[in-house]
Amino acid sequence: MISSETVKELRERSGVSVMECKKALEEAAGDIEKALAMLEKRFGGMAAKKLSRETQDGIVEAYIHSNGKLGVLVEFHSETDFVARNPAFKELAHDIALHIAAMNPAYRSIEDIPEAVVAKERGEFEEEVAKLGKPKEIAAQIIEGKLASRLSEMSLLAQPFVKDPNKTVKDLIDAAVGKFGENIRVGRFIRFGI
Questions:
Q1: How far apart are CA 154 and CA 157, in angstroms?
Q2: How many other C-beta atoms can be found within 10 angstroms of the C-beta atom of residue 144?
Q3: What's the gap between Cα 193 and its chain centre?
Q4: Per-residue pLDDT tens for 5-40?
Q5: pTM for the structure as a whole
Q6: In this prediction, what percent of the chain has a pLDDT beyond 90?
Q7: pLDDT tens digits for range 47-80
Q8: Quick one: CATH architecture of 4-50?
Q9: Which secondary structure element, helix H or strand E, spans residue 193, and what is its range?
Q10: Which CATH architecture has domain 57-108+156-193?
Q11: 101 — phi, psi (to 5°)?
Q12: Are 118 and 70 in contact (CB under 8 A)?
């Protein structure tokens, strides 16, 4: 028998419906961590299915730091006005605006980074690694690893979320897609600082 407290805890940690949480706990024989992993797998996959759906609604969220010297505006899109008005959706948009203020990403995703920027970064790493005198195969692996890391730092969706470094911003949005049952995406954003 699964206790209501266990279901409630899983619901709070996953953001998934009570029925889905109860089903996952039954399948995991009451183990919260296993059930959480099952829900991540199940609802993380849901995000991929919903990606093709149009996001025609949403909100613009603003974050102004307490000292008044830093501010962010971010477009946060949903499929319907119903989701856009949801307090949890607004809270997620605010968290992402806060993340942008803290981490200062230059691009929305790795795919959005211009090829010229990627080539410049690659060139810098090639010069750096050439000084090490490593064999070509190892040097190539080092360059690719450093490049992947640098591009992730520049990309909002690939960055570890500022409030929970174990998840990326993309993981956070994928979980919200599972929770709301709609495609959700970050649009344009801008960070102002003095």
A1: 9
A2: 12
A3: 23
A4: 888 777 767 666 677 788 888 888 888 888 878 877
A5: 0.70
A6: 51
A7: 444 445 566 789 999 999 999 999 999 999 988 8
A8: Orthogonal Bundle (1.10)
A9: strand 185-193
A10: 2-Layer Sandwich (3.30)
A11: -60, -40
A12: no
* Amino acid letter, 79: E
The rounded distance, in Å, linking the Cα atoms of 109 and 132 is 31
DSSP state of 155: B
Taking alpha carbons only, the member of 42, 43, 39, 54 closest to residue 183 is 54
- What are the C-alpha distances in Å from 126 to residues 114, 117, 140, 149, 153? 19, 14, 8, 14, 18
CB 193 within 8 A of CB 72: no
**Alpha helix segments (H runs only) across the chain:** 4-14, 18-27, 32-50, 81-84, 87-103, 115-130, 136-154, 169-180
Q: 60: closest CA among 155, 163, 187, 153?
A: 187
Least Cα distance to 174 among 20, 11, 44 occurs for 44
Q: Are 48 and 185 in contact (CB under 8 A)?
A: no
170 contacts 183 by C-beta, under 8 angstroms: no
Joined tokens for residue 24: 């996952």
Asked if 175 contacts 44 with a C-beta cutoff of 8 angstroms, the reply is: yes
| pLDDT for the residue numbered 132 | 84
Burial status of residue 74 (CB atoms within 10 A of its CB: 0-12, 13-18, 19 or more): buried
